[in-house]
Fold each of these.
Amino acid sequence: VVVRDLRGCFLLPGFVDTHVHYPQTAVTDAYGGGQLMEWLEHCIFPAEAELADPGYAEAIAAAFVARRVACGTTAAMVFGSAFPVAQRALYEAHEAAGLRVVSGRGIQTVGPDSAAPLITTEAEALALVREEIDTWHDPAGLRQVAIVPRFSLSVTRQTLAALGELYAEVADGGVYVHSHLNENNRAGDGEIATVKAMYEVDSYLDTYDGRFLPGSRVGGAGLLGRRTIMAHAVHCTDAELDRMAATGTSIAHCPTSQLFLGSGTMPWRRTVAAGVNVALGTDVGAGDEWLLSRVANDCYKVHLSAPGDDAVAVHPAELLFAATLAGARALDQEDRFGNLDAGKEADFLVIDPAAYAPLALTLEQASTPDQQLFALLMGLREPAIREVYVAGRRVGPGQAASEA
Ligand code: GUN
Ligand code: ZN
């Protein structure tokens, strides 16, 4: 092997983004004039409809992969496009770039007028998910497929029942589930209130847990498990957190997105104490940062600013964990990547503080390892990400992909 002297640099595990929307690549910082429901209807559904155009989808897939490489996001759970042609572009761009990806087309069988281009019949939705699994799912490789109902308001009881049956059939093959949970708690017409009214359930999580009949009665197989990631989980009951912990379901925690959409702050202490795995997600495009350490930065600030006893200074090691190993755990691939343990597949970043002077300056003032890690995570910006490796292979930044 070639031994390289990288003194002055840091090695970090590659970042794992557990919630990022590929079809929203071009619409970060979109002004919807309100919170989640307004923003989806005015900005997001129309923008996602544009990916029906194969040429545009290819351009967006290329831009998406380029942002991932620049930000050192070596693995990700990618919320996909409704259009198979756009999913093809996504998978092919990832294959060419050498990045890990788990993705699935966003399933919508009901919705407002602006979502019409994204909606299919239930039969078509099921056929398309099966086809995506058959075509792209590669359990031992870098690319896997997820079943992705957009959220409970984009599907029906019948769709959830059918997806539960499908999941029971394909779960052993390592297929994933991804969706949104408990994001917006505006009284009356917010997301959570609408889910509870529409399904007549006690809790939002029940709809994903097979309990989607009135009174939270069981209506079919559930979608929770070790390969299930629920994004947001800002406003969970204790029972919902306990159920996620018991089933091994992970939370994609997206504080940058919560700030952007006014969704509130996930109670860090209570959520972590419940024993549920909490990993970070950018939630691009409601999150307007691609760099996962910037999400860790917001994570630190929002939880320190939480009211009363909820306020907590998240330790730098926990921030690093949430941005890396917790994500690998959420993807149920902790044995393959997530830290620098011997025997893993070597997903890592070379950080060069000299390439970004403000970072070099603050690191000089950090005297303990904890302070150093904190300054590194809080102050990291893209110019300092010098090299990115996935499974021991250099994937960028820059053009030359070469063996390490
Ligand atoms: N809930 C349903 N769809 C979305 C989405 O695209 N982004 C976010 N943040 N929440 C959602
Ligand atoms: Zn999202």
Amino acid sequence: VDLLQYNTRFERVRALMHMHGLDFLLIGPSADLVYLTGAHLRTTERMAVLVLPQEGPATVVLPAFEAPLLPPLSDGVQVRTWDESDNPARIAATVMSDSMHGHPGGVNITVGVGERLWSVFLLRLQAELPRAAFTPATMVMSQARQIKTSDEIDLLAHSGAMADEVFARIIGWPFSGRREIDMAGEIAALLEAGGLLVEGVPIVASGPNSASPHHHAGERVIRTGDVVVLDFGGTYKGYYSDITRTVFVGGRPADDSEEMRVYQLVAATQSAAVEAALPEMQCQELDSVARNLLTSAGYGEYFNHRLGHGIGLDGHEPPYLVQGNDTRLQPGMAFTIEPGLYLPGRFGVRIEDTVALQAEGAVRLNNADRGITIVE
Ligand code: ZN
Ligand code: ZN
């Protein structure tokens, strides 16, 4: 583990705290915590929080018996444990006032709160710091995390390549006669066998279920003639992959069928959006590239979600490619491009690749076949 990278991340985050006028960050177990310390902790009813002042050492406050869960920490991070009968919010507040040389009650300080810190912990911290102002840490953490280093892009690329390999394997499986949920379990097992960690259940959405973008794989038995949307990924060293492909069961749909027309439209739109992505473009402009193509083909109303989302230590993170988001794309950002069309009660098609943005444009981190794919 290269602990020096965490010092670099601290510097970046502290510069952003300065820019946004935040004196402290309070970060619960989350990808933000992993980003800053490498610590993978779970949120439980026992408070664990990173207290990061704009200057001076950071402190992880956590239950004493969970201290063994911490990885080696960089020099700038101390550990303050609490015992079962202690008040952890008070301890965190004491850590903060110590770092401000004893200002009681957080007079005139502004505290950025991580998105994944449970509200019950925030309420207790607010009670201990009645004079402090609290605000989301989102601006700081998302600005820091959404520009990836080349090492981070390499991890995302490796994660993506492993998901691609899984797709190449599963299209050799029989689909017809199998339950969605069983196939989802086997896809997860194959991802894990390839070295990815899988949280949750892959999407296997067959027949009319494919018209539900976030369908939960269920009891439905896949049949010949079905369209099947497969959306899956996992993490490699904490970094996510996310890919979607849509396959046809039992035979190629007729060239003049709506299934074929929709598939080819989605595939062409996905390619056009990947090719259009450039630094300085607004997130909503890239969404419009896809949305305008689908709308002018008469299908706009069936594209009922955003074009994509950032990806990294979280599966969904900024930047979000959505109308209303004027964030400008920058080299080093990684995000998905996943247009889809969903015809209620009939079928849906989605094609998703994760991409990394470079100065010249987007580079795909998924390269699994995007052509018409027939499975048995
Ligand atoms: Zn996906
Ligand atoms: Zn996605």
